[in-house]
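**Protein fold record**
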Amino acid sequence: MNQDLLPESLSDLYENMALAFSSQFENLIELVVTPGWRQYQLIIILFLWALAFVLRLLTQKRWEAWARARTGWPKWRLRTLVQLMRRLTLVYFVILSWGLYLVMQQVTWPSRSYLIGVFATLAVAWLVIAMVARLVRNRTLRRIFKWSMWIYATLVALNLTDDVADFLDGVAISVGDLHISALGIIKAVLLIGILLTLARLGTRAAERGLKGNDDITPSMQVLLAKGIQVLLYGAVFLAAIRTLGFDLTGIALLSGAIGVGIGFGLQKVVSNLISGIIILMDRSIKPGDVISLGDTFGWINALGARYVSVVTRDGREYLIPNEDLITNQVVNWSHSDRFVRLDLDFGTSYDDDPHQVRATAIRSVKAVTRVLSGGTHEPVCHITGFGDSSVDYVLRFWISDPTKGLTNIRGNVYLALWDAFKEEGISIPFPQREVRLLSDDAVAQQIAKE
């Protein structure tokens, strides 16, 4: 504890705090038991709340029907409308209490509407806090934010902020020039929560803005979004340290030593982070590209700071470390363009005319969906050799949508070849073996010859 903070001063703080709360409690008791306008105001407040509840029962179905008809509204506006309808009683109470308070301020003494104004202010604060808290997705942080802001709003309405602030500021720890009080910690926690929420909203807004800009490549969009995220969250971290009272220059040496130790322990993590930055900068792969890495074939779903998400045709999602994409050989089927050439090998009988086979194969593959034709993407068929049982051919064709699969298009082309060959009378041979059975005399003659 602070050496300047003696037990007598602590006891004084506790005593002053106790006196403040006891005074407020006595005032509350006096409000309840003493006849007069204070009791009348409490009765009016209860009546307004009951009236707001009745109004909710009478109008809720109409509001729900009106809300269902708002199909063209943006999602954020519809969500806000749903949250307001869930708190319809509180909304009606705010309207009624503030309307009555403003009227009484004009027609009677201000003291006769003081309590109504306090409860109207609290109702507005509770409604605003409940709506703003929906921006915090984490349930624990949302509850902390709600209760903290509700307590603060109540203290402001009851004029207790100065007494509570003096008490919390007196509960402190001092180490050299460092002074940490309970009030400072509470302020830091609230500030960090607000800044984290703003950083998250700012990051999402930046990502949406970058994705909507067609002049920026997908890789640069991801890189810029990650850079904005690092800057915003880094600023929140520095603000948190400064709010707590830490001197950044004093911890520079310690943070450097810790950073060296962490660097040795997290070499792979740092390597993946640097590899991710290199991938984003050289644009070797980008979201939507079709790649092959070892036995993995799929398209890039997302580029992360540590890994790349690759989705295969069977629905599996592989998280490949960025370092593997830098150090290993990667086949990018759509690096410069999305055109992919596929080769199919087949064979026909020696009795079939090879000119007819080539023409039939080209005609059949052109009729298959997804196969391109014309210009440099015209299908071709070549003889590759004279095999033991067949004349060997290779059929080459192009597609522009590899993300839809390669095996299925190969299967469709094979079926088209099968149907066309059946129609033209072209046979597909299979390996044949001739077995001869020799008699005993023939075997003896063969042995004698040898």
Q: What stands out?
A: The chain is about 60% helix and 15% strand. The first strand starts at residue 172 and ends at 175.
